[in-house]
Design a protein that fits this description.
The chain has helices at 2-8, 27-32, 190-195, and strands at 51-60, 74-78, 81-85, 88-91, 97-101, 110-117, 124-130, 146-157, 162-177, 180-184, 201-203, 208-215, 220-225, 235-242. It is mainly β.
Length: 256
């Protein structure tokens, strides 16, 4: 697709001097314009105004060591575009499902997923974070109230990428009779037990089992395991949920 679009649009040869005439320039821009700063002109293809899901392979800088959580506000500079967004981070793997990361890991590459206008890969990106007065920055030097926290490039424009968050529910044995056991404190009503009944159970000591039936109305349940449990064992249920980036109404302004 990228090569087809480039073949359909003839451009100017790199290194050629050209003259650009800009019409209807606002008066406020002319008054604030300074010849000491470069003026960047960017041309877009028609489809590059469409909003999609962008996935960037990013790595943190070493001079800023403060934690950066998923959905924290960051500023992405992608070529001539500036995107103020709240990315989510996930593992950078070749799998079809990617583990959600609560924090941007400082030692490994991660994938930052955001909503933004479509663009070709591998578009380079610089990631900045706004800093407040008095914030501990270490060896980092802020510029115009922002600090460089990472860099990378665009991996894909793919809304079907699965970022999966893992949640573990725990319970404890109340009564144990050979392979059967009554489990409590994982749920607190019979409706939840019935809803999660197909999900497999695991224990800290390596046993597996399934929910057999609900007992009473306070969240107790009878379960069947592959072998007898110990009274001090912990029963776990792993649940998985797809996570999406934070949507902002201001993203629609990018498509105007």
């Amino acid at each position: 697709t990228q090569q087809r679009v480039l073949d359909e649009h003839e451009g100017v040869v790199s290194g050629t001097y050209i003259t650009i005439q800009v019409l209807d320039v606002p008066q406020a821009f002319v008054e604030q314009f300074s010849y000491q700063k470069p003026l960047v002109a960017v041309a877009l293809f028609p489809f590059e105004r469409k909003i999609s899901v962008l996935n960037f392979a990013v790595r943190r800088t070493t001079n800023y060591t403060e934690p950066i959580a998923s959905k924290d506000e960051l500023i992405f500079y992608c070529g001539g575009r500036t995107l103020v967004c709240n990315p989510i981070f996930s593992e950078h793997t070749s799998s079809d499902k990617h583990k959600f990361e609560r924090f941007w890991m400082p030692t490994t590459s991660s994938v930052a997923t955001i909503y933004g206008p479509t663009m070709f890969h591998p578009t380079p990106v610089l990631i900045f974070k706004r800093v407040t007065e008095g914030e501990e920055l270490g060896d980092a030097v802020p510029i115009d109230g922002m600090i460089l926290v990472g860099s990378g490039s665009l991996v894909s424009v793919d809304p079907d990428r699965l970022n999966i968050k893992k949640i573990t529910l725990t319970g404890e044995p109340f009564k144990v009779l050979k392979r059967k056991a009554v489990i409590r404190r994982m749920f607190h009503n019979a409706e939840d037990i019935q809803w999660f009944k197909p999900v497999e159970l695991r224990t800290r000591l390596g046993h597996t089992g399934n929910i057999h039936e609900s007992i009473g109305t306070h969240g107790h349940m009878r379960c069947l395991f592959d072998s007898q449990l110990k009274q001090h064992d912990v029963i776990m249920m792993n649940l998985y949920k797809r996570v999406y980036p934070t949507w902002k109404p201001s993203y629609l302004l990018l498509a105007d």
